[in-house]
Specification:
By secondary structure, this protein is an alpha/beta fold. The longest helix is centred in the middle third of the chain and has 19 residues. About 45% of the residues lie in helices and about 5% in strands. Strand 2, helix 5 and strand 3 form a beta-alpha-beta unit. It contains 20 helices and 7 strands. It is flat, with a radius of gyration of 31 Å. Helix 10 packs across helix 11, helix 16 runs antiparallel to helix 17 and helix 17 packs antiparallel against helix 18. It folds into 4 domains: about 130 residues, 3-Layer(aba) Sandwich (Rossmann fold), CATH 3.40.50.300; about 70 residues, Helicase, Ruva Protein, domain 3 (Orthogonal Bundle); about 90 residues, Zinc Finger, Delta Prime, domain 3, CATH 1.20.272; about 70 residues, post-AAA+ oligomerization domain-like (Orthogonal Bundle). The protein starts with 5 loop residues before the first helix and ends in a 7-residue tail after the last helix.
Amino acid sequence: MSYRPLADEIRPQSLDEVVGQRHILGENGLLRRIIESGHIPNLVFYGPSGTGKTTVANIIARRTNRPLHRLNATTASISDIKDIIKDIGTMLAPDGVLLYLDEIQYFNKKQQQTLLEFMENGSITLIASTTENPYFYVYNAILSRSTVFEFKAVESGEIEKAVERAFRVLAEEEGRPILPEEGVCAHIASHCGGDVRKAMNAVELSTLACDSGGPHIEVTLEAARELTQKSTMRYDKGGDEHYDLMSAFQKSMRGSDPDATVHYLGRLLEAGDLPSACRRLLVCACEDVGLAWPQIIPIVKAAVDAALMVGLPEARIPLADAAILVALAPKSNSAYCALDSAIADIKAGKAGPIPRNLQNKHYDSAEVERKGQFYQYPHDAPHHWLPQQYLPDSLLGASYYQYGENKNEQSFRAYWEKIKHTGGGSPI
């Protein structure tokens, strides 16, 4: 008998056995109601690996009288789709087929379009799964003909029940007791990153590692720890997890939460993604601290330079200093917002000619009535300022920059108000 992975061997056979996903498979969950109705529409499942997408597709297949075809988009081609299509309407598939297409994000537009005609007339019922956001990776015409369901990482409490069951199944197969040390099941459940398949693999490997051939197998906590020490975190540098983690890192700094900041920094560094951590730190220093404390920018740059110079693991030290500093610093996005407002006007066509006094030419063509540049040099005036036009005529009176409510910007505001609005008195 060929070997079957434990995760496949104990795969749930009913919706009640599925671990997690109560939001869609619970008593009143929408997906559960659809499945139980027997009328299966085209479905797209998305979410992390090991969360039950394939399991639910298998359960659906058993509830239909249609033959089930499985394709993985990483290896399948248009010819594979055509092989399935040619059976439709024959004795092999008189009522059509159920197609489970895993990793649909790897199908290009043309490959996805091949399915459309048959989805439209109902001869193919598509169940597609993906670990990426389908609204970015799946062709719109497919999405418009499908119902999308999100599968979420499974809570450790739910996974622990599955781990306990897995040890019982293995014990029955072995014909001898398997005795997990106290804390083993909880440790595996909490260190698999919400991935049930990964937890099952850890159960199987820890059992093998602790099997000394005796009358029983005692699975130690030490063995479980060794097998799961790098498995807690999901991270795909090119996938959604990467962008979610980057977003969480910056939003935690912007939200002035040093604890969440170092948590997400730690996850980035544990994944070995030093460049992303450095880039996000610099962006946040400029975008979110900004003019409230502009001196932070060279400080963060120095920390980033030090981190890149020494590399991991030591790079974590200057980056932790910089990240906490950014989190605790006063915040202002006034410069960021000012530039966005200016760009919005530019995109709307509100640009206009540069005022003559600002142009870099020192002659006038014949048709210009008023000759001369008329630029006034601010350094020749008291306090190095004098009134003159800088914005184009079409934007006179436009205001993009708004002073932030922080000590730094407010001191600038007081300085310029005294000079500009009180007749140019002595600056403070």
